[in-house]
Design a protein that fits this description.
By secondary structure, the chain is mainly α. The protein has a single domain, classed as Arp2/3 complex 21 kDa subunit ARPC3 (Orthogonal Bundle). The protein contains eight helices and two strands; from the N terminus they run H-E-E-H-H-H-H-H-H-H. The protein has helices at 2-26, 43-71, 80-85, 88-115, 121-148, 154-172, 179-212, 216-255; strands at 31-34, 37-40. Helix 2 crosses helix 8 (216-255) and helix 5 (121-148) runs antiparallel to helix 8. The radius of gyration is 19 Å and the shape is globular.
């Protein structure tokens, strides 16, 4: 009986979070155009599903995210040029790029959450502190490079301020945070950003170079810049939302 009940709960959770993902995708609330790619918040339901339902629920919701991303491809700033000039092979590779990283977000998040169950809160804070310091230094490197090349760097300044504010808030009030969920949010978000950009660059670098009449080196620089400018805000939003949503859901679960 308990096994059936648990299975039913996971099915309901998968359906609810997948529905939220679809609505966010259809209404475009979950996709925010920034430069050559779209920043997204659709990975957040995936991470929540992985935390509360495990790898299967996380993968199902991640699949919903990936399918929505694929269906957006013809009008997506990332894939529209490839879709317009591509054939069957390109469409298959777009599907792989859109879906596989999002399914892996659910898997990685679920196993990271389980693996960090025995990590002390202070250890989690140290891990998160290290990730944020790395992000701050990498963003600083990008800003210096943008200044040197006379490109806009105001986004880097905003990101740097956001990282410092979040770093201060978390380290000062870490006892109020669900650090296990926060570390999971970091792992899930980075999985989404890094794998998506890796697949897109590996599969379509020559297509992008042709479509925009630029060299492959420039394509690489554009993707790295987009990854930082979009990935860091996604990471910050994910940390905050996953933390408070998980705290609220755990409290609700405890009362019931």
């Amino acid at each position: 009986m308990e096994r059936v009940s648990s299975r039913t709960q996971k099915m309901v959770l998968s359906a609810i979070l997948s529905a939220i993902t679809v609505v966010l995708g259809i209404t475009q609330i979950g996709f925010i155009p920034v430069g050559p790619i779209r920043a997204t918040i659709l990975h957040i339901p995936v991470i929540i599903g992985a935390i509360f339902g495990g790898p299967i629920v996380g993968s199902v919701v991640g699949l919903s995210f990936g399918v929505m991303s694929f269906l957006q491809a013809p009008t997506d700033p990332t894939f529209a040029p490839i879709w317009a000039i591509g054939g069957f092979r390109e469409i298959v590779l777009i599907a792989v790029t859109a879906i596989i990283p999002r399914v892996l977000v659910g898997l990685v998040s679920a196993y990271v959450y389980k693996a960090t169950n025995k990590i002390e809160r202070k250890t989690s804070v140290i891990l998160l502190f290290g990730v944020q310091i790395f992000a701050f230094l990498f963003n600083a490197y990008q800003m210096i490079d943008n200044i040197r090349n006379q490109q806009a760097y105001w986004v880097n300044i905003v990101i740097a301020v956001a990282i410092l504010v979040l770093l201060f808030v978390i380290t000062k009030n870490y006892q109020k945070y669900n650090m296990q969920a926060v570390v999971t949010a970091v792992a899930g978000t980075l999985t989404n950003t890094v794998l998506f950009i890796f697949f897109a660059y590996q599969f379509f670098k020559y297509d992008f170079a042709t479509a925009f009449n630029i060299d492959v080196g420039t394509v690489k620089d554009l993707w790295l810049t987009a990854g930082v400018t979009n990935g860091l805000p996604e990471l910050l939003v994910s940390i905050v939302l996953v933390n408070y949503i998980s705290i609220a859901l755990f409290a609700f679960k405890k009362r019931n």
